[in-house]
Amino acid sequence: MKRKIKLLILPLAALLSACQLFLGLEHDPSPSEVLKSLWTDFNNIHANLDFRMSNNLNYNSWYDVYHNEQDGYAKKVYPDMSENALFNLCANMLKELNDPHVALYAPGRSSSSYNGSYENVSTAKDVNYSYTNFAFGRFPDSDIGYIYISAFINEDAKGKTEENGQEWGRVIDKIIESLANTKALVLDIRNNRGGELYSMEYIAARFASEQKDYAKARIKIGPKQSDLSAPIIYTVKSVSKASGNKYGYTKPIVLLTNKGTVSAGEWFTLALRTQKHVTHVGTPTCGALSTRNDRSMINGWLYSISPERVTDMNGKYYEGIGISPYEEVSNSTTSQRDDEQLDYALKRAKELAGEE
Length: 356
Hints:
about 350 residues; alpha/beta; 2-enoyl-CoA Hydratase, Chain A, domain 1; 2 domains; four-stranded antiparallel sheet; 9 helices
């Protein structure tokens, strides 16, 4: 089964800016009802609880910790608790998942489930020209090209039609054309925030030499962790196979990732790892591959959730772990003037191009 779906951008800041987006209520649910309803939704919809649960909790004990006074757990929800206290309680419960695609929203405040940190990196210096989401150029005294992709969505284009709103992505063709006579390429997607699946696949196709299935996704359809839909198969196509197409780059590519490579950036990583001319280096990605759905709570608040279980074509899960590079290299310094990952990627690209 094949189907196109949308991957939403991360981080989850500023999803809601107006109180009128919240639903009006027919009754005022108790704090206990609100907490139980949220727990039930996650039990039925979140597809990766067994991968995401922290502190050696299982899903039932997770609920007990926050709701019930039993099995050594003190009850944390009570009838006359304030709205702020209830929000903090729900937010803390969701933080147990440490999921970048999970967040809680109420008028005037929000809370992300993710408590990890991202590496502070910069794009290659003395190399860059830029368009929306892209920096690119050539390394000095070298035939090695460089492309940085910060996201697979243009946030400035929100509200436009798909065709007009995603015009930014087509710039990749001009960028590749400008680098056509390079011998190899460093493709840097560190701290890539994610984005739209169709934009990601459009760009990934420019670096594919052959069409390959690259991911399988199953949607959660019931309360058990095994209640999953039939797999949806995703395929990266290859524009380089088209007769006379000048926009495909199939020379050696070094793909550079880090912990900040998230969501659609990770799908992009899976897609390119199917290609023989791509070498994946850096550090593991974030490990947040599900799509993100936004849903309302019974008290009018909103939350986001991860409803998909995603694997590569061999059935390997990366949720909560990340996709490990073929060759792992970290930045051992916080200095903005040093970038050992990028230096290594350039060195490997030169080796693959025969410059070293």
